[in-house]
Every structure is written in structure tokens, then in C-alpha cells.
Amino acid sequence: MTRDDLIQDDLTHADLRARVRALPEVLAARPHLARLGALFSETILLEVDGAEFYLRFDRGRIEEIIEGPSRKIPWRFALRTDLGALAAFWQPCPAPGFHDIFGLAKIGRARIDGDILCLVRSLRFVKEVLALPRTAAVEVPA
Fold this sequence. Notes:
The structure is a single chain. By secondary structure, the protein is an alpha+beta fold. It is built from six helices and five strands; from the N terminus they run H-H-E-E-E-E-H-H-E-H-H. A hairpin with a 2-residue loop joins strand 1 (43-48) and strand 2 (51-58). It is globular. Residues 1-8 have low confidence and may be disordered.
């Protein structure tokens, strides 16, 4: 059994869009993340199979999510991955290699571009925000 056999690839592009759009509400319900991200005010790019989502943060809150593609929106760092890898990353108990954004990069299913120092300065906050859809109880509004 390979690592790819362990992932459930049932995430659609519509599900992806709904989960990303739900991030601000889910983030607002996590006060510990507000403390972790209090100094984080950047725009990051989440690119999944060419679909671009620019997440603009202001002091740890997602102020705006802009769907791309756009060459005019500046971003500090980007996570570029495929839909299957993101579906596996968002599983409640992900398989080895799919448990972490750096794990995805290590197994060749993601690429992290841009200002890595900015990412590392707020690493725990960014990793927890990107993993928010992982929780089994996340209700995605229709």
C-alpha cells in the first residue's frame, strides 16, 4: 500500500471554495489563534490545482479572501498543492506526509514559495489556520 492509497480524494473544487470561504468564521471561533496571530498581518496565496485564493490577514484575522488568478495582488508566501493532497491534509487524522505543510512539500505534493522567513516567524499560526478545515465537526455553509 502506497501513501497515495491512504488518501480519500473526494474533495471537489466547490467543496474547496466553500471550506476556504468558511475559514474566517472558523478562525474567529478560536481565541487561541487570535493570540498566536496578533502580530501577523500579511497576504498569503493558497493555490490548489491552479485555483488561487489570496488570504489577507490583519492582526491574526482573515479580513478578505480574494479568488484569483491575479498578478496584481502581492503575497508574502504561497502554498501550492493539488486537490488530492489538500483533501488528504484536511482529513481528521491525515496519513504520514499529509499531516503538515512541510510534510506535503517533502513528499513532493506541495511547494512553498516566497518569503520563508515570514512563514517561519508565524509558523504555528499559519499551520493551524491552514489545518482548520481538518476538524471533523466543521460545518460548511451551503
